[in-house]
Write a structure and sequence with these properties.
This is UBC core domain-containing protein. The chain has about 80 residues and is an alpha+beta fold. It contains two helices and four strands. Strands 1, 2, 3 and 4 form a four-stranded antiparallel β-sheet that branches. Strand 2 and strand 3 (about 30) form a beta hairpin.
């Protein structure tokens, strides 16, 4: 799956994901093939605590860091 946001913090980046859906469909595993500076959606139980804390305390700095990750790790369109 390739996602190319046209707006928002992640605009301009190309994010590739590999999604494995087992026959049981109980535990879907998603692997990001691009490095993301994000807390992966759940701010209360974040996988990236640094990103979640920054999102909560300094949105401008969070946006800056996210844009740095896009420039460093993502293809551009």
């Amino acid at each position: 799956l390739t996602v190319c946001p046209q707006e928002g913090i992640y605009r301009g980046g190309v994010f590739k994901f590999s999604i494995s859906v087992p026959p049981e469909y109980n535990n879907v595993v998603i692997h990001g093939l691009s490095s993301l500076f994000t807390d992966l959606i759940d701010f209360d139980d974040a996988l990236n605590m640094q990103a979640a804390q920054l999102w909560s305390t300094n949105r401008e700095q969070f946006t800056h860091r996210a844009r740095e990750y896009i420039a460093k790790y993502c293809e551009r369109r």
